[in-house]
Every structure is written in C-alpha cells, then in structure tokens.
Amino acid sequence: MADGDTLALPNSGNAANRGGRFGWALTLVLLTLLAVGLGGGVGALMVSEFERAVLAKHRAETEASNVSASPYSGAISLRSVAPVVTNLANSETDWIRLESSIVFKSGTDINPDIMVAETRQDLLAFLRTVSLAQIQGPSGLLHLREDLNERVRLRSKGSIQELIVESLVVQ
Q1: Per 3-state DSSP, what percentage of the chain is helix, strand, and coil (rounded to 5)?
Q2: What does the pLDDT read at residue 21?
Q3: d(CA 116, CA 120)
Q4: Positive or negative CA dihedral for 112, 109, 144, 128?
Q5: What is the CATH number of domain 76-170?
Q6: Which of 109, 100, 102, 99 is nearest to 77 (CA)?
C-alpha cells in the first residue's frame, strides 16, 4: 500500500449516508407535525375568542334593546291641533287637509292653548308654500313630516317635542 492510500471499510459510507437521510426525514416530519399542532391550537384559540366577543356583543345589544329610553318620558302632554285646510302653492284646484297633534313639555310657562293656536297658524302658512310635486310619494311625505316637525320645534323654542300627523288628505 502506498502512503496516500486509505483503507476503506466496506459499505461504511452508505450506512452513514442512509442514517443522515433518515434523520433529516424524521426531523422534517416532526417539525411538520409540530407546526400543524401549533397552528391548529392557535386557530382554535382565536375562534373561541371571536365567539366570546360576538356573544358578548349580542348580549349587550339585547340588554340595550330591552332597556330603551322613551323619548316621551317626563312631564309631557298631548294636544290636538284643529284641522288645517288650505290650497297648495301655485294651484287653486289642489287642496290639502292636515289633522295633527303636538307633544309638548307640560312644565313650561307657555299657555298650551296659545301654543296650539300658534302652531296651527304656522302650519297653515307653511302648507300654502308647498306644491303638489313636493309631497308626492313616500319620500315627499317623509320630507313634509320632517319639515313640519323642524318648523314647529323652532317656532316653540324647543317646548314642542314632536308634531304627530294623524291624517293628511290631498285633493
């Protein structure tokens, strides 16, 4: 044998090579199983937290809807306003009749009869400026109701809470 020659054992390189490959495969399988387990655990934790948050929100909404504050609490009164009949703007043949009531704070210094009379007069003046096209359809009726409520609140300086439209006839 020469100085540079080494003695090789039969199949010694193949066994080490096979053991290294098996070790790597085993490591990859274990890491994959660990990743799947951790991912599933974190996902389950997140889902349970989400479910708890949704249930808490639902409970809070349910409790809030059961204990809703009425806008008509306190010292309030209801008075009927005499029917308002007038013709519409720019027309002598189109007429409107409005029957309504007002909800107002009863603890104010204002005489309720005077407040009702002023409200009726203001409704009459406003309805004379409304055209038929403005009150047609559901959105027109909604806008008329909002305009009337806003006008009545401004006129009474906040003592009237709402104008309730009982009937509205346009002929």
Answers
A1: 55, 20, 25
A2: 81
A3: 6
A4: positive
A5: 3.30.479.30
A6: 102
8 Å CB contact between 119 and 156: yes
CA dist 144 and 71 (Å) reads: 21
Residues 90-137: pLDDT tens digits? 888 989 999 999 998 877 777 888 889 999 999 999 999 999 999 999
CA–CA gap between residue 18 and residue 120 (Å, rounded): 101
Name the residue ranges covered by the structural domains of the chain.
Answer: 8-68, 76-170
Cβ-based burial of 166 (10 A; exposed 0-12, middle 13-18, buried ≥19): exposed
Tokens at residue 164, please?
A: 């309730």
- Would you say the pTM of this structure is higher than 0.70? no
Kindly state the DSSP code that residue 108 receives in the 8-state scheme.
S
Q: What is the largest CA-CA distance in the chain?
A: 131
